[in-house]
Design a protein that fits this description.
- By secondary structure, the protein is mainly α.
- It has two domains: 2-99 and 111-163, no CATH class; 173-229, no CATH class.
- The chain has helices at 2-13, 15-19, 24-40, 53-61, 69-77, 80-97, 123-132, 134-138, 143-159, 166-172, 174-182, 190-196, 201-228.
- The longest helix is centred in the last third of the chain and has 28 residues, at 201-228.
Length: 229
Amino acid sequence: MNNLIRLLQDIKDNPVIYLEKPSITYLHSFLIGYLSTRTEMGLDREGSGIEGFQEWIQKREKTNVSQSWAGILVFSCGSDRNAFYSFFELFERFLNDESSKKDENGRSLNYSENDLKISVRPLYELLGSIKKRPGMYLGNNSITKLDMLLRGYSLAQREVGLPLTYQEREFDGFKSWIEEKYGINSGQSWSKIILFYSVDEHEALQKFFELFEEYLNRKKSSEVDENSG
């Protein structure tokens, strides 16, 4: 949980570095990627620290609507940005309300991070799963939420020093390829570029998967040409 608290403080102080802008929606997707990856690596077995926050928010706001805590905060705070800043105060209250995790003898549960798995789910496998069931991972079809989830996924691995895989190194070249394809040189993320050339977030997400497949096939074609040359 200490990892999460430190990270949230960094995000609160420097949201642009992690999320591009103060946004509870972006933060929610980022944390899904980050926390699920840490769990997959065998960390946070005593809990990430955010378990129960959904129920706590629902109780506080006296609602049973089937929305994420982020969605509930957007509604109650009036805007995505206001909800972002309110989240940190509310999360601190939540932590203060929650008793520490205890075993049956009342001792704090402490797990070592020495049980870290060597690897996590391969990036392209994760993307394939998201493509099949975007609602399960993203809540709704949104290229920005995908981007934030992948940032959380990457950060969780960097924190423990896992080296980049071939797939992750290959994905790093996607942004340059997108810029070349659209004939622009932009400091924007690949998601923002694709969104700019799309009608909305939904279309942009669909377009991402089409473009990414084209990107991979292009590299494969180049490799075939080189081998046959």
